[in-house]
Design brief:
Blueprint lengths: L1 H24 L1 H43 L11 E5 L13 E3 L5 E4 L15
Antiparallel strand pairs: 1-3, 2-3
């Protein structure tokens, strides 16, 4: 009896092992199919992104070229600037209100335009 019971258990165990092998034998193929589908989806997405971004990138390059080729406009005060002086040369603390700094931390002195004669005011004032 004990031997029959043991034989029956071994038989059930071998059947369950066979079923497990059948079920798991398809796993590598399933994983490979999944990886291939993911790769294909990734490539399709990459192509779609290139299609969408291409025109935007082209427009940005054109805008950059246009901004570099634009003429430089001068203002009515552009002739007022004098030579650039280093910060160390300026001793007067009140000068900072009459000057500003460029990108190299150098102070640009502004000359105040001199009037040749006082303007004449006409009217009630």
């Amino acid at each position: 009896m004990y031997i029959d019971n043991l034989a029956e258990r071994l038989n059930k165990l071998s059947i369950s092992v066979e079923k497990f092998e059948e079920k798991t034998s398809s796993h590598p193929k399933f994983l490979l199919d999944h990886v291939e589908k993911c790769d294909e989806a990734r490539m399709n997405l990459k192509d779609k992104v290139k299609i969408e971004i291409g025109p935007i990138t082209e427009k940005m390059h054109k805008m950059n070229e246009a901004s570099l080729n634009m003429p430089k406009f001068s203002t009515q005060f552009s002739h007022i600037r004098s030579a650039v002086k280093p910060k160390d040369e300026i001793k007067n603390p009140f000068i900072k209100y009459l000057s500003h700094q460029d990108n190299n931390n150098q102070v640009l002195m502004k000359k105040v335009p001199q009037l040749k004669e006082w303007p004449a005011f006409i009217g009630d004032g």
